Amino acid sequence: MKVKEEVFSPFYMDDEFLKRERQKAKELKKTKWWQRKLSQGRCYYCGRKFPPSVLTMDHIVPISRGGRSVKSNLVPACQNCNFSKKHQLGFEFELKKINE
Ligand SMILES: [Zn+2]
To answer: What pTM was estimated for this model as a whole?
Structure first.
């Protein structure tokens, strides 16, 4: 599956990988693509509207779990969701949301 290959890297335990993906995320924050996402002002997780200034860039699959800084893995999240997600892996968080 192509999407899976793009989102996950087999080298995720590598320090260089973490550094590179963090840098890539930083670069993507400057792009029109991200500005457009922010201007929609919607949190990916709770779906509520927020001013773009309070939304943060979030990796659905965290870099520390092998997630990459690609568009399909980056979403705007409000501070509340970002905080509660920190304690859980993205997919578990998603499942919890569906079950609720
Ligand atoms: Zn939210």
So the answer is: 0.72
